[in-house]
């Protein structure tokens, strides 16, 4: 008879297993009038990949980045240009785009990560703005008009359901890797860096190489999300509006609202804010209002304030504490 699995092993796979079941079942319910939810689910998955990398960077090493929309666009446009302009095979274009993004992140990280706090945030903000300006001004990127008729990745088919399954399969793999990383000795080293870099270095943690590695990984994950956006979500058109600085701010808000020290919090933040954005758009259509963008920023700001007041470490950690508190009360009454 085999010995039971250790609790830590079971808890490590409980979240991905539940997510796998939900991803397998819920898209099948989106039919008829609710078929547009599949497109929303695809966008949620793409944003979840970006936010996962940003969670590792911000929540586990304490490095603030306001340039992830630029890295997102870098991956999308690099792969699109290699596939359409250079006429390379799609998978080779994807591999080269991810490699190029990793190299760019290494070059940028070597200098940017010498900065700390708001200086690092401003430096990454400028980097994102530079990438966005290059995308909108260069002829090879199509400028403000964008690129059209990109090759489509259709591993599971070309329908909305197949696209949803493909994107969320990548999301689950990314989350599994991130959970493994955060529960490993490397994850504990990252938490030590977030707590106190000098103390972590005194304990033998290689602070700068780890920070640089996570910076590169977060940028490559953003580029991977951009590739999925370009070749799976919207292969008919790739425009620069998806990669503006406001998207970088939105990604940061997703991390903070979901929970900076929680991989699952980043996923929850991405799903909640993307769903809320869609809900406000639908409300604007019903009210025949064109000013919902102003109210959207107001709602996002109010939600962020409420989360920070009632749960300073984010939505998911706060929800977990509440559930544990209720469970404890129930056990005491029993």
Protein model, in words:
With 334 residues, this protein is mainly alpha-helical. It has one domain. The protein is 76% helix and 1% strand. It has 13 helices and 2 strands; from the N terminus they run αααααβααααβαααα. The chain has a two-stranded antiparallel sheet. The two termini are 34 Å apart.
In short:
The chain is mainly alpha-helical. It has 13 helices and two strands, in the order αααααβααααβαααα. It has one domain.
Q: Averaged pLDDT, please?
A: 83
Q: Write down the Rg.
A: 20 Å
End-to-end gap: 34 Å
Give the beta-strand count: 2
The helix content, as a percent range, equals: over 70%
Give the overall silhouette: globular
Question: Percent of residues in beta strands?
Answer: under 5%
Along the chain, the helix and strand elements come as HHHHHEHHHHEHHHH
Number of domains: 1
Number of helices: 13
**Unreliable runs:** 1-7
Main pleated sheet: 2 strands, antiparallel
Quaternary structure = single chain
Widest sheet: strand ordering: 1-2
Q: SS-based structural class?
A: mainly alpha
